[in-house]
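JOB MANIFEST
job_type = single_chain_structure
chain_count = 1
residues = 185
[input]
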Amino acid sequence: MGPAAGDGRDDYLAFVESHQHRLLRAAYLICGNRHQAEDLLQDALLKLALRWASVRDGDPAAYVRAILYRDTVSWWRRRRRERLSAEPPEQTAPDRDGALRLTLHDALGLLPPRQRAVLVLRYYEDLTEVATAEALGVSVGTVKSQCHAALRRLREVTPDLARDARPVREPGKRGDLAAGLEVNP
């Protein structure tokens, strides 16, 4: 079963080359372990390769993310929160906000898997509540409640993150909604 000319192999390889780093980072954020993230992404990209002909004209990145998050949730269900490593991945570039990143990484590690997945999808991947619900196979209400609970828990365990996320409010101006970690209590 050799590849024929024009079978989309070049398109698939171009897609993988252009999206693999962002997808790997998302996988790492969702599971907290570099090796597991690499395995999850490799499996997701294999599944994409098998369906490339029907997916390539749509949004293959969304297809891979959905596979990635569903496989991660399945892995969690099998493993029940087993943590393989608490070490962050090796840094390839200088990190300007290293302390903040490590604090956030540690705080995400304290969250239950579903809450962590919701935060990564909503705020790192910038998905809507509906898209997050679809990716995780849950209802929009579950996404809202898990997001609310996760942000509250992050504020409890790392009050410095909540303080850093609050915008400076100018007197007499409306729009004092805090960004990032702030939600209605």
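[summary]
Confidence is low (pLDDT under 50) at residues 1-5, 166-185.
The CA atoms of residues 61 and 149 lie 28 Å apart.
exit_status = 0
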